[in-house]
Amino acid sequence: MKREVIITADGSKTIFLPDIQEQYHSKNGAITESEYVFIEKGYLYHTSKTPAILEIGFGTGLNCFLTAIQAERQKRNTLYFAIDNCKLEQSLIKELDYGNFNLNLNSAKIFEYIHSCRWGVLTLISNYFQLYKINVDFTSEELPDIKPCDIIYFDAFGPDKQPEMWTPKIFNKIYDLTSAGGVFVTYSAKGEVRRQLGYAGFDMQRLPGPPGKKEMLRGRKIKSII
Question: By C-alpha distance, which of 65, 64, 61, 49 is closest to 150?
Answer without folding.
Answer: 49
